[in-house]
């Protein structure tokens, strides 16, 4: 090998094609939409094989029963053994009826969840193994046991690891059935499941199920399913024990003098928090499933004698009409329920505070809670509801009204301040004093960009800082937001990119946006602010007025679960003392008129009746 041959070999390997030594990468093939998967002959063969295997298992069970009968007949006859044999033959007869060719063909076309529980333990075990993809799936746990009695009863216990409390299963299920069992008890004397539930199981919630769909719903919630040999029912025992976060302080809706508890991700904990505030039998909780594949629990809470029944019917109709695989959060569920999902304005209240939910229920509203979400949805609402907080009634009416005025002023400044500045800069310079005009012109002398571009750049930077402060760790978020805003504004002014008046306008606008209590409403106002800025750049104050008029007309057409969004202003209804300003608490006599509650009055005409009585210790 000399230098010539080495160069020739390298050139040959470079030019000539050489198959790769590594296998080709995995590429997921495309599936044509709208065309169902063809049923292969192999699938048909497997289905027939399963049917024949079921018949063979039934035949083996019948053979064992006949052998048992032969042994019994060769021995002295006993009443207990004859009753046991009769019960076993009855179960075999029922299993054989389920395995007729006509019924097997019907079950093959039917959803497995709609099939009934078999009298054979083996058939039930195989069905659950097929439904839960065993043995690949390690979540489902199977426990075989024998319940002492005359005769002994074979049984199988199924539960999902991670959703149950093991101590509850050991102490409330296995121990009563196995260790504390009475060998003289006769479960087959009558209905076995009824005797088992009423006499031997101390679990607080026990029920029966006849279909595998009901069994799977309970297993997925953390219950335990018990199957008995020869019984075509499953006993479902409440053994929930899923780990969950403890009750913590509100993170998004902090208050100074209000409640300090917030919802968690567990549905029953959240409903308990609301019921701990409203300790009345009138509080109704209806639970349904949302999501075709996830079967997420969803609760609708209301006061039965107070809420308008049509609101309950409409909410249940909308929840039943949601056909999706999974609902990830309360926000995703809200977008499925509202009338105008394309609008950014919130059409229902999303809160993490149980006291706000309780107050809304007392007004005649509905609350929707989703398992796995620490937020509750309150509907219907009006736009003015979004300016209220949970602690408004913890202060005097003068202080609460002043705070509400601050929120309305902050919302107005957030929406219109940059647009008004742009309109005056381009079209209406005569609207401000001459000295201020000269000061603004001197400050903008070195700025190479027009006012509209200045405003948009600084607002984009402010929104970027806001989003960055939200996404980074909580310990660094406020520091980076404040320091970044100061450094960025000072550097932009020093570099001559923006003028100081622009920094002041954007800073005041951003500060005013934090006064809006509802985050979703604040987000919608910030979005529409950009629309007003474009209109101000094109048409001046006329454009701002046209934008506000269009926004008002849009909000007048919006409804929240059938209730006008701007009520009681548009349409005009009887308004109470809790719309813009908050009147004294003893004057809050009537509930909102737009909800049409069954009981309009929330307190007596004279709530402070102690003022009409003589003081303690003095008689008149």
What is the alpha-carbon Rg in Å?
Answer: 35 Å
Mean pLDDT, all residues = 83
Q: What is the rounded distance between the termini?
A: 128 Å
Tally of distinct domains: 3
What coarse outline follows from CA principal-axis ratios?
flat
How are the strands of the largest sheet arranged?
Answer: 1-2-4-5-3
Give a count of the beta strands, DSSP E runs of length 2 or more. 12
| Major sheet | 5 strands, antiparallel
Oligomer: single chain
Percent range for β-strand residues: 5-15%
SSE layout and pairings?
Blueprint: H1 3-15, H2 41-73, H3 79-98, H4 101-109, H5 121-131, E1 140-147, E2 153-160, H6 166-179, H7 192-200, E3 206-209, H8 212-221, E4 224-228, E5 234-237, H9 267-277, E6 283-290, E7 296-303, H10 309-320, H11 330-337, E8 349-351, H12 354-363, E9 366-370, E10 376-379, H13 397-426, H14 434-443, H15 451-471, H16 477-494, H17 500-513, H18 519-539, H19 541-556, E11 559-560, E12 563-564
Antiparallel strand pairs: 1-2, 2-4, 3-5, 4-5, 6-7, 7-9, 8-10, 9-10, 11-12
Helix pairs in contact: 2-3, 9-12, 13-17, 13-18, 15-16, 15-17, 18-19
């Amino acid at each position: 090998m000399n230098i010539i041959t080495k160069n020739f070999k390298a050139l040959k390997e470079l030019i000539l094609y050489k198959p790769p030594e590594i296998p080709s990468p995995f590429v997921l093939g495309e599936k044509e939409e709208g065309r169902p998967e063809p049923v292969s002959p192999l699938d048909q063969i497997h289905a027939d094989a399963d049917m024949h295997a079921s018949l063979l298992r039934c035949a083996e069970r019948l053979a064992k029963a006949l052998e048992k009968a032969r042994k019994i007949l060769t021995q002295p006859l006993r009443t207990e053994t004859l009753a046991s044999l009769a019960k076993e033959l009855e179960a075999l007869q029922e299993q054989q009826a389920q395995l007729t060719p006509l019924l097997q063909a019907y079950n093959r076309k039917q959803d497995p969840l709609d099939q009934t529980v078999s009298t054979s333990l083996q058939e039930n075990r195989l069905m659950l193994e097929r439904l839960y993809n065993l043995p690949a799936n390690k979540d489902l746990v199977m426990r075989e046991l024998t319940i002492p009695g005359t005769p002994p009863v074979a049984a199988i216990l199924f539960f999902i690891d991670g959703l149950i409390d093991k101590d509850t299963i050991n102490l409330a299920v296995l121990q009563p059935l196995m260790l504390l069992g009475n060998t003289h008890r006769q479960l087959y004397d009558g209905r076995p499941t009824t005797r088992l539930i009423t006499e031997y199981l101390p679990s607080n919630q026990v029920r029966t199920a006849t279909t595998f769909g009901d069994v799977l719903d309970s297993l997925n919630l953390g219950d335990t399913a018990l199957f008995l040999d020869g019984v075509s029912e499953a006993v479902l025992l409440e053994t929930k024990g899923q780990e969950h976060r403890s009750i913590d302080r509100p993170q998004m809706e902090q208050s100074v003098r209000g409640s300090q508890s917030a919802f968690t991700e567990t549905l029953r904990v959240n409903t308990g928090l609301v019921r701990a505030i409203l300790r009345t039998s009138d509080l109704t909780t209806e639970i349904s499933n949302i999501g075709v594949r996830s079967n997420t629990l969803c609760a609708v809470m209301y006061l039965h004698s107070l809420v308008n029944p049509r609101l309950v019917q409409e909410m249940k109709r909308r929840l039943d009409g949601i056909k999706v695989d999974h609902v990830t959060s309360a926000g995703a569920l809200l977008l499925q329920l509202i009338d105008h999902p394309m609008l950014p304005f919130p059409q229902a209240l999303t809160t993490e505070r149980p006291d706000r939910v309780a107050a809304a229920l007392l007004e005649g509203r509905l609350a929707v809670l989703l398992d796995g979400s620490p937020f509750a949805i309150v509907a219907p609402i009006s736009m003015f509801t979004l300016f209220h907080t949970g602690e408004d009634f913890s202060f005097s009416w003068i202080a609460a009204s002043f705070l509400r005025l601050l929120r309305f002023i902050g919302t107005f400044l957030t929406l219109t301040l940059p647009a008004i500045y742009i309109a005056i800069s381009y079209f209406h310079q005569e609207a401000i004093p001459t000295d201020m005009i000269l000061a603004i012109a001197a400050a903008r002398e070195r700025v190479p960009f027009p006012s509209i571009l200045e405003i948009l750049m600084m607002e984009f930077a402010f929104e970027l800082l806001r989003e960055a402060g939200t996404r980074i760790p909580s310990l660094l978020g406020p520091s980076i937001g404040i320091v970044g805003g100061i450094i960025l504004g000072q550097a932009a002014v020093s570099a001559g990119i923006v003028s100081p008046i622009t920094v002041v306008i954007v800073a005041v606008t951003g500060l005013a946006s934090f006064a809006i209590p509802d985050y979703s409403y604040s987000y919608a106002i910030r979005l529409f602010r950009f629309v007003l800025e474009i209109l101000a750049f094109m048409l001046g104050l006329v454009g701002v007025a046209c934008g506000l008029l269009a926004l008002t007309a849009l909000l007048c057409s919006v409804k929240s679960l059938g209730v006008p969004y701007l009520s009681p202003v548009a349409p005009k209804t009887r308004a109470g003392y809790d719309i813009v300003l908050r009147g004294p608490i003893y004057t809050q006599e009537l509930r909102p008129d737009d909800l049409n509650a069954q009981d309009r009055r929330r307190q007596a005409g004279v709530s402070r009746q102690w003022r009409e009585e003589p003081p303690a210790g003095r008689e008149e």
